[in-house]
Write a structure and sequence with these properties.
Layout: E1 3-19, E2 25-35, E3 40-49, H1 57-60, E4 80-88, E5 101-105, H2 109-115, E6 118-119, E7 143-146, E8 150-151, E9 155-157, E10 162-168, E11 174-180, H3 186-195, E12 204-212, E13 215-224, E14 233-235, H4 248-255, H5 276-291, H6 300-314, H7 329-347
Parallel strand pairs: 6-7, 11-13
Antiparallel strand pairs: 1-2, 1-4, 2-3, 4-5, 7-12, 8-10, 9-10, 10-11, 12-13, 13-14
Helix pairs in contact: 5-6, 5-7
Length: 348
């Protein structure tokens, strides 16, 4: 459950993009916020099953917002957003509860840029790997505001089906931003293709950054443009931009019916290989949770989880102790799942 964030919190809104990380679910992540008081990124995400007809992720950006006082997620773009009675989960997602109300105020480029944690060097970018069970990674640590010295012209890589744009920092270190082909990404790909290497001087690039195979890579989110008294943010996945001509690249990909890349390399990391006994415990927990604990004979779930924990201890994972007999079945499953998740993160 979300925990109370603050009675009153203020954040600068940076629009996000739509993405499909798996074949099972279609997600929309329409808003990423920077909280100056907390010095961290926060997100709000709307999601629907892939099988649900009629859900258009890009259209959701301009549909009613989750909080009273905010017309649509698009209305928060590049503005100061003050939330009253906000709630945020441990992974920094703002809840869409009806009790939260929003107040929106305009921001100019100078004020917004002064609030954002702009990076001129890529040396310290990318989140640190998990080194132990008590040191989980913060998913919002992947977000970064980049202040590049210059940008190289974007190029299409037919082998990986991605549009790539390289940003150089003051020391000449390269960071490659890429967008994998998808019809949901077509608008952003067309925007970046039109932009080429002509990034406006002084512009900031908001991106999600990771280190892959020893190299920095990321996905561009939006631009923060200097010299604007209003609307300083250019949302690459939603805004039209100055160039409204059709993109030759996008038209070619659509005409040739190029299939979507549903699992981009730079989306959530693929799970690492885990011991068979750990995978079996996760499957057991998920199966018991789906069936529900009501009506199950006393001690059944406790015994099944206990046996799975013993199998893991035999495999060398001594932290999987026998579950406490006095703990209820739902809490037993939650405690066991917590251990599974921590081990999976440590092995990632």
């Amino acid at each position: 459950m979300p925990r109370a964030w603050t009675t009153r919190g203020t954040a600068a809104a940076i629009p996000s993009r739509c993405f499909m990380p798996s074949e099972y679910e279609r997600y929309l992540s329409p808003a990423v916020f920077w909280s100056p008081s907390r010095q961290q990124f926060l997100t709000w995400t709307d999601a629907r099953p892939d099988s649900l007809p009629g859900f258009e992720p890009r259209a959701r950006w301009r549909q009613p917002a989750p909080w009273t006082g905010l017309v649509a997620p698009a209305a928060s773009s590049g503005r100061r957003l003050t939330l009253t009675h906000a709630q945020v989960s441990p992974d920094s997602r703002i809840s869409a509860v009806e009790s939260t109300s929003a107040a929106v105020a305009a921001l100019g480029s100078d004020e917004l840029m002064s609030l954002l944690p702009a990076r001129t060097s890529w040396r310290e970018l990318a989140p640190t790997r998990v080194h132990g069970l008590s040191n989980p990674a913060d998913p919002t640590s992947q977000w970064a505001v980049l202040c590049p010295a210059r940008a190289l012209p974007s190029r299409w890589d037919p082998a990986t089906q991605t549009l790539q744009c390289t940003l150089l920092d003051d020391g000449g270190e390269a960071l490659t931003l890429d967008i994998p082909w998808s019809r949901l990404h077509a608008h952003a790909i067309g925007r970046l293709e039109a932009l080429g290497g002509d990034l406006p001087a002084g512009a900031l690039v908001v991106a999600r950054v990771a280190r892959r195979r020893g190299h920095l890579a990321g996905e561009p989110l939006s631009l923060v443009l200097p010299g604007r008294a209003v609307s300083p943010v250019d949302a690459l996945h939603f805004d039209d931009g100055p160039e409204r001509r059709p993109s030759p690249l996008v038209e070619r990909l659509l005409t040739s019916s190029t299939p979507d890349r549903t699992v981009p390399d730079n989306d959530e990391p693929r799970p690492a290989a885990v011991p068979v006994a750990l995978a079996e415990l996760r499957a057991l927990i998920e199966a018991e949770a789906q069936r529900g604990c009501a009506g199950v004979a006393p001690g059944v779930i406790h015994d099944r989880v206990g046996q799975a924990h013993r199998n893991l201890r035999h495999a060398g994972l001594s932290l999987f102790a026998d579950p406490a007999p006095a703990v209820s079945p739902p809490e037993t499953l939650l405690r066991s799942l917590f251990l599974v998740q921590r081990v999976e993160q440590a092995l990632a």
